[in-house]
Design goal:
To B.subtilis soj. InterPro entries: AAA_dom, DNA_Partitioning_ATPase, P-loop_NTPase. Residues 4-178 form the AAA domain. The relative contact order is 0.19. The chain has one domain (3-251): Rossmann fold, CATH 3.40.50.300. By secondary structure, it is an alpha/beta fold. 43% of the residues lie in helices and 18% in strands. Strand 7 (177-186), helix 9 (191-204) and strand 8 form a beta-alpha-beta unit. The model has no long low-confidence stretch (mean pLDDT 95). Bound molecules: adenosine-5'-diphosphate and magnesium ion.
């Protein structure tokens, strides 16, 4: 069974792309077959795994606008152990054109159905907006992973995101669940961060991942080398945290067994 996770938060800079790349790589390290789908016109996930976004001929845009088959767009990245559906600035066109298509919310779901049996996990790195592309991700997904920075305004945007998730669940995608809230870039010396973290636990209880992603410079450096943090510095606190997060995700979805043979 393929499990599709949308990594979403309409705020920029909260760690969506960092989480998408490193959770994908961590799941791959436990022998799961993983597809990372870059849905952001900025192409940060694409560049972050070492693919030159300006050099790719086919992207998620071509898949969403039915100009190409997913299998022809997906790249296989043996050094990171994952597959990638890349994106670049062309995604802006998909965002606009999908607004004019009657079934424009279903384009990603339809495309992923063609390749789903080749993957155990599909991670969707969403753009920083509650846009048509994010709606496509929420329609295609089984679960939503919401990265958040524990700061003063963090909870504000959460209401709008939860409303959108609720609406899509009621109207289009009844199986959609909030998979979890992930505390990112966490600095335990920061009192406000601790307060916001406590509030999150109080309101969302078991929906908050026990794993906390610390602020760690290795996580910020790795993408400039086109590497996951595990490949860049396996001993870093960032690498350990994302492996722990993968463990939590696996425990929730497939009993957490480590597969020793592919
Ligand atoms: P988003 O995709 O939500 O916009 P990113 O994952 O691109 O957010 O993260 C924003 C910036 O913060 C990037 O420069 C990234 O390298 C950095 N960053 C993300 N997570 C961490 C972390 N835990 N520690 C340090 N830097 C981080
Ligand atoms: Mg991003």
């Amino acid at each position: 069974m393929t499990y599709i996770i949308a990594v979403a938060n309409q705020k920029g800079g909260v760690g969506k792309t960092t989480t998408s790349i490193n959770l994908a790589a961590s799941l791959a390290a436990t022998k799961r077959r993983v597809l990372l789908v870059d849905l952001d016109a900025q192409g940060n996930a694409t560049m972050g795994v070492g693919v030159d976004k300006s050099a790719v001929k086919l992207t998620a845009r071509d898949v969403l606008l039915e100009k190409a088959k997913p299998a022809d767009v997906i790249l296989h990245l043996p050094e990171i152990g994952i597959s990638l559906m890349p994106a670049n600035g062309d995604m802006t066109e998909a965002e606009i054109k999908l607004r004019d298509v009657a079934v424009g919310d279903f384009a990603l779901k339809a495309a992923l159905a063609e390749v789903a049996d080749q993957f155990d996990y599909i991670l969707l790195d969403c753009p920083p907006a509650l846009s048509k592309l994010t709606v496509n991700a929420l329609v295609a997904a089984d679960g939503v992973l919401i990265p958040m920075q524990c700061e003063y305004y963090a909870l504000e945007g959460l209401t709008a995101l939860m409303d959108t998730i609720g609406k899509i669940k009621r109207v289009i995608n009844p199986k959609l669940e909030v998979e979890g809230l992930l505390r990112t870039m966490f600095d335990p010396r920061n009192n406000l961060a601790n307060d916001v973290s406590a509030q999150l636990l109080e309101h969302f209880k078991e929906k908050v991942y026990r794993t906390i992603i610390p602020r760690n410079v290795r996580l910020a450096e790795a993408p400039s080398h086109g590497l996951s943090v595990m490949a860049y510095d396996a001993q870093s606190s960032g690498a350990k945290a994302y492996l722990a997060l993968a463990g939590e995700v696996l425990r929730r979805h497939d009993g957490g067994q480590l597969r020793l043979s592919a």
